[in-house]
Design goal:
Blueprint: E1 2-8, H1 28-35, E2 41-50, E3 55-62, H2 67-72, H3 75-91, E4 96-99, H4 111-115, E5 120-122, H5 125-142, E6 151-155, H6 160-169, E7 175-179, H7 183-197, E8 202-204, H8 207-212, E9 216-219, E10 238-241, H9 251-255, E11 260-262, E12 264-268, E13 271-274, E14 285-287, H10 288-298, H11 313-325, E15 329-335, E16 338-340, H12 342-363
Parallel strand pairs: 1-3, 1-4, 4-5, 6-7, 6-9, 7-8, 9-10, 10-11
Antiparallel strand pairs: 2-3, 2-13, 12-14, 12-15, 15-16
């Protein structure tokens, strides 16, 4: 049985109370001060992953730093702690380790970590993109949007993820707008898509104008600040925000009950899996980045897979094929770091239809 590990960390100081209830008694500042000095540790053993052709067992490894600390502490200190977590995975017998949440973002996105370990490393971002695209298709369908006829916009289209998304979606849609700051790179990508798919795409550097007329938006920029505010979206729009930090302002969730914002998909894991850790998802489901590590372990793939900031169409297609082989599939949608229930999606669609109806009556 192949073994893997996945490195997790508390997003906030409060998250520690899930594992250590005593943490509720102390202030966030106190907790963050203390956990800096706590070495990585095994959080739980993951059992019961069983695909049609293989079994796997794994471990969650805790890297005790919050998201804020991952970003604000000296990068060398953070990366050394992630490497220590990877070394623990090695000692536990893992053949591949996945980097979760901010451990996949800091520094050079896993390259330095991989160079300092004797086991394979992946960030899980290829399957994250694959499920984000699949989630976008599913979200468009439940919102009554025909992706083929919809106005689809990709923000950050010239980046590695944005470019891969554009090339994949260009085979499925008629109206595609690519948005980025570097217009010469946009034109180059546009020409490549024209040659390979025959689709003529629009290009622009005007994010606001592009988003306001879009039925579907995929946001994958590296912007530090939010790009999409509550007033930017039309009723019924679907936004898939893959970017970290997120491109969609959190106020959109509070102020727009008529648009569907997703971050990607929740993945159903084959077998009778017991994670030994509650990360807030329905039983038997996981983040796509976790699933990528499990898929590669089941496949006995012991080479680095997704590291660095470049993701190719080939990588996305390969992990999608392996996921299907081993029985992984989309189990639902995720929005603002929580599972989105089907009833919630239905409410959003109803609100969008009502808002469109009122708008038409006013115009009429």
């Amino acid at each position: 049985m192949e073994k893997f590990a996945f490195i997790v960390h508390p997003l906030t100081a409060r998250d520690l109370s899930r594992k250590f209830p005593i943490a509720k008694r102390f202030s966030d500042h106190f907790i963050e001060t203390i956990i800096q000095y706590i070495p990585p540790f095994k959080v739980s053993t993951i059992r019961g992953i069983q695909s049609p052709v293989a079994d796997a067992e794994g471990f969650f490894i805790g890297c005790p730093l919050t998201s804020r600390q991952m970003v604000e502490l000296p990068q060398e200190k953070v990366i050394q702690k992630i490497i220590r977590a990877g070394k623990l995975a090695e000692n536990l017998g893992a053949k591949i380790v996945g980097l979760g949440a901010f451990t996949s973002i800091v520094g050079d996105a896993g390259i330095t970590v991989a160079k300092n370990l004797n086991i394979a490393v992946t960030t899980g971002n290829s399957y994250t993109v694959a499920t984000a695209l699949e989630g976008t298709r599913q979200a468009a369908k439940v919102m009554g949007i025909s992706l083929e006829r919809a106005s689809v916009v990709i923000l950050g289209a010239t980046g590695a993820i944005g470019s891969a998304c554009a090339q994949i979606l260009a085979k499925e849609v008629r109206y595609l707008t690519l948005v980025a700051r570097n217009e010469s790179r946009l034109e180059k990508l546009s020409a490549h898509i024209m040659r390979t798919t025959g689709l003529v795409v629009e290009v622009t550097a005007n994010t606001k104008a592009a988003v306001q007329s879009a039925d579907v938006v995929i946001a994958v920029t590296s912007a530090v600040d939010s790009l999409i505010e509550p007033g930017d979206l039309k009723p019924g729009a679907v936004v898939c925000d893959v970017a970290r930090p997120r491109n969609v302002a959190k106020s959109v969730a509070a102020e727009r009950n008529d648009v569907l914002v997703i971050e990607g998909g929740i993945v159903e894991v084959p077998g009778n899996v017991n994670f030994g850790l509650d990360f807030g998802f329905p039983p038997g489901t996981a983040y796509a980045c976790m699933a990528e590590t499990m898929i590669l372990a089941l496949e006995k793939y012991e080479k680095n897979f997704t590291i660095g900031r470049d993701i190719t169409v080939k990588q996305i297609e390969k992990i999608t094929q392996l996921a299907q082989k081993h029985g992984f599939k989309l189990a639902g949608l995720r929005s603002f770091e929580r599972a989105l229930l089907p009833d919630e999606v239905n409410v959003i669609r109803t609100n969008a239809l009502l808002k469109c109806k009122v708008s038409k009556e006013r115009i009429g």
